[in-house]
Amino acid sequence: MNNKFNFNVREQRNLTMLVDFYELTMGNGYFDKGLKDKIAYFDMFFRRVPDSGGYCIVAGVEQLLEYLNNLKFTDDDIDYLKSKNTFSEEFLQYLRDFKFTCDVWAVPEGNPVFPNEPLVTVRGPVIQAQFIETMILLTVNHQTLIATKANRICRAAGDRPVMEFGSRRAQGYDGAIYGARAAIIGGCSSTACTISDKMFNIPAIGTMAHSWVQLFDTEYESFKSWAELYPDNCVLLIDTYNVIKSGIPNAIKVFDEILKPMGKRPNGIRIDSGDITYLTKHCRQMLDEAGYEDCKIVISNSLDEHIIRDVLEQGACIDSFGVGERLITAKSEPVFGGVYKLVAIENNSEIIPKIKISENDEKITNPGFKKIIRIFDKTSHKALADLIVLNNEKLDESKPLTIFDPVHTWKRKKLKNYYAKELQVQLFKKGKCVYDCPSVLEIKEFSKNEINKLWSEVLRFENPHSYYVDLSENLWALKQSLLHKYTKSYELQD
Amino acid sequence: MNNKFNFNVREQRNLTMLVDFYELTMGNGYFDKGLKDKIAYFDMFFRRVPDSGGYCIVAGVEQLLEYLNNLKFTDDDIDYLKSKNTFSEEFLQYLRDFKFTCDVWAVPEGNPVFPNEPLVTVRGPVIQAQFIETMILLTVNHQTLIATKANRICRAAGDRPVMEFGSRRAQGYDGAIYGARAAIIGGCSSTACTISDKMFNIPAIGTMAHSWVQLFDTEYESFKSWAELYPDNCVLLIDTYNVIKSGIPNAIKVFDEILKPMGKRPNGIRIDSGDITYLTKHCRQMLDEAGYEDCKIVISNSLDEHIIRDVLEQGACIDSFGVGERLITAKSEPVFGGVYKLVAIENNSEIIPKIKISENDEKITNPGFKKIIRIFDKTSHKALADLIVLNNEKLDESKPLTIFDPVHTWKRKKLKNYYAKELQVQLFKKGKCVYDCPSVLEIKEFSKNEINKLWSEVLRFENPHSYYVDLSENLWALKQSLLHKYTKSYELQD
Question: I need a labelling partner for B402 at 20 to 30 A (CA). Which of A76, A388, B317, B483 fits?
Answer without folding.
Answer: B483
